[in-house]
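Inverse folding, one chain.
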């Protein structure tokens, strides 16, 4: 009989197998879920399970952010054609003040009031206190500017290591970059302009230059921008030699050259109400000064060659020495050239022939001597001709006053040996002034009687000088008004006390103040000031209070005031209306200004005799 396992046991084994299979399936599913979760949360460190081949299992990575494609040359060309052109200008580099060498120092110099201005080709010009230094073309006129530097702060003999000119732009509303043009900054030859601010356009424009310093174009100019230039070594050495030679003034000129059109630019003068205070400045870097004054080294000048062959031989020798030994050492600043002084050789002058026949005989004799003996030896440079002393001949002195209505010829002025110290009574109350028939010519002294209008000519000028000397003295004596420069080198009116030899400031203006005159009552002082931009007349009390402007002239000059004897009127000269110097008069408060004398001539510098 076949045996079969009991049914209960077989059921138990089947259950056990099913349980084990369930456990295995659960474990597999658990690890599968763990792998899926790990691949999602830890994808940045690589897959969680390795594959059968030992490689990482594939996981889904995030989509990368698209980067811009590299442009092709064709694309760049298309962009360049479609984009507008933009000129990129390099930013101007600011000027850096140099550091002085050991023992040296830095000195900055700028023009003072009255030492910088502009000139126009139509005759207009600034008075020396304008804020703008115009250069260019506007309204059909050419504008130029110039500035003067006082080099007295630079000691002679001190090495000039570096020199820089600084200019600051101020106004460009009439600057046209499309017109173009060149602005040239030049140094003028020394001594060509003894009075810069009083010169005219033509003289300044044609004055010879010594150095063409540098040039600027329209792109270099804009308000607030600084233009600066450091001198080259040749210009620096030239300027040092000028200082050694005693030239203490340096004048620079700015010219404009254009092909047409109008373009005007203005640099800052450092003066006036509109200025930003940026003066044109020369910055000197000086070397160490000598510890002790050097004794002069005396050298003898090279003798003048006797002929052309000797001069050529000297030149060949000098050239050979330079090629063999190099450039000679520059002469020191304390060198003095000895100039031999020849002993004078006195000869007597040829007497004047008494008549025409004697003169003919003397000429024939001189011709015969020249034919027989040859040309006479030239006289040496140290010849002195003995001039006989003329005999003292009494010359009748012409009358002091000659009435123009009674004159038939111009009297010849004669100087008196000792002028009187008292003004003639007939001149008291009259107005003395100078008159010239043409501008620029010397004048003759005239007298005007303001009551009758009668004119007279004076043959001597001592009454004018005496009357003018009394204008600056206080009527109660002792004090006087003078003109002295202040600490900024600007002329100012001051009161001088001779008893204690002291001065007291009366004006403190930015522009020049001058021509002071004391009123006969002693309560006011009239003077001229350039504070408004041109020459205007002011009054001020002796204690410095109540400064009052009397004239308001659009022309250049209202000058040389003089009080009437009663102190109620002031006479002066002005170029208003006519353009010529003419005599004007006004009340002491500035009212009732009128021309005193209708004159076709130049009349100036009046003094009302008191």
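Residues assigned per position:
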């Amino acid at each position: 009989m076949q045996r079969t396992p009991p049914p209960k046991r077989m059921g138990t084994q089947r259950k056990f197998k099913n349980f084990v299979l369930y456990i295995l399936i659960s474990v597999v599913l658990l690890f599968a879920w763990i792998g899926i979760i790990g691949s999602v949360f830890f994808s940045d460190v690589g897959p969680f399970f390795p594959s059968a081949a030992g490689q990482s299992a594939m996981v889904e990575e995030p989509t990368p952010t698209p980067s811009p494609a590299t442009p092709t040359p064709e694309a760049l060309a298309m962009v360049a054609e479609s984009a507008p052109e933009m000129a990129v200008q390099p930013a101007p580099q600011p000027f850096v003040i140099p550091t002085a060498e050991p023992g040296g120092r830095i000195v900055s110099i700028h023009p003072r009031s009255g030492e910088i201005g502009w000139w126009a080709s139509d005759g207009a010009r600034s008075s020396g206190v304008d804020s703008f230094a115009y250069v260019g073309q506007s309204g059909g006129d050419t504008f130029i500017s110039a500035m003067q530097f006082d080099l007295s702060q630079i000691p002679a003999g001190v090495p000039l290591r570096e020199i820089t000119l600084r200019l600051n732009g101020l106004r460009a509303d009439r600057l046209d970059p499309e017109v173009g043009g060149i602005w040239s900054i030049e140094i003028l030859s020394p001594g060509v302009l003894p009075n810069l601010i009083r010169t005219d356009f033509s003289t300044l424009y044609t004055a010879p230059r010594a150095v063409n310093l540098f040039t600027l174009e329209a792109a270099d100019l804009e308000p607030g921008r600084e233009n600066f230039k450091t001198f080259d070594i040749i210009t620096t050495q030239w300027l040092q030699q000028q200082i050694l030679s005693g030239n203490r003034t340096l004048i620079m000129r700015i010219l404009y050259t254009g092909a047409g059109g109008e373009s005007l630019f203005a640099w800052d003068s450092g003066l006036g109400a509109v200025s930003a205070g940026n003066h044109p400045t020369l910055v000197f870097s000086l070397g160490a000064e000598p510890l002790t004054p050097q004794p002069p080294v005396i050298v003898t000048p090279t003798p003048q060659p006797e002929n052309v062959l000797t001069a050529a031989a000297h030149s060949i020798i000098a050239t050979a020495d330079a090629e063999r030994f190099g450039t000679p050492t520059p002469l020191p600043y304390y060198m003095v050239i000895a100039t031999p002084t020849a002993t004078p050789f006195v000869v007597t002058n040829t007497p004047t022939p008494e008549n025409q026949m004697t003169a003919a005989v003397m000429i024939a004799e001189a011709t015969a001597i020249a034919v027989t003996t040859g040309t006479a030896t030239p006289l040496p440079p140290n010849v002195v001709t003995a001039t006989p002393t003329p005999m003292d001949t009494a010359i009748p002195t012409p009358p002091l006053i000659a009435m123009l209505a009674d004159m038939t010829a111009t009297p010849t002025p004669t100087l008196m040996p000792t002028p009187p110290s008292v003004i003639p009574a007939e001149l008291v109350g009259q107005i003395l002034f100078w008159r010239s028939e043409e501008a620029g010519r010397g004048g003759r002294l005239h007298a005007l009687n303001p009551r009758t209008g009668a004119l007279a000519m004076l043959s001597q000028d001592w009454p004018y000088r005496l009357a003018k000397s009394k204008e600056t003295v206080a009527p109660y004596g002792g004090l006087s008004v003078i003109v002295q420069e202040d600490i900024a080198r600007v002329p100012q009116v001051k009161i001088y006390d001779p008893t204690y030899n002291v001065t007291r400031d009366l004006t403190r203006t930015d522009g020049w103040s001058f021509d002071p005159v004391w009123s006969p009552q002693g309560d006011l002082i009239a003077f001229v000031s350039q504070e408004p931009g041109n020459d205007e007349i002011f009054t001020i009390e002796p204690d410095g209070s109540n400064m009052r402007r009397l004239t308001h002239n659009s022309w250049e000059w209202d000058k040389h005031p003089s009080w009437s004897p009663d102190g109620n009127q002031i006479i002066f000269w002005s170029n208003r209306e006519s353009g010529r110097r003419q005599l004007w008069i006004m009340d002491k408060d500035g009212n009732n200004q009128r021309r005193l004398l209708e004159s076709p001539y130049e009349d100036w510098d009046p003094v009302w005799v008191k």
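The domain at 401-608 is CATH 2.120.10 (Neuraminidase). The CA atoms of residues 31 and 251 lie 99 Å apart.
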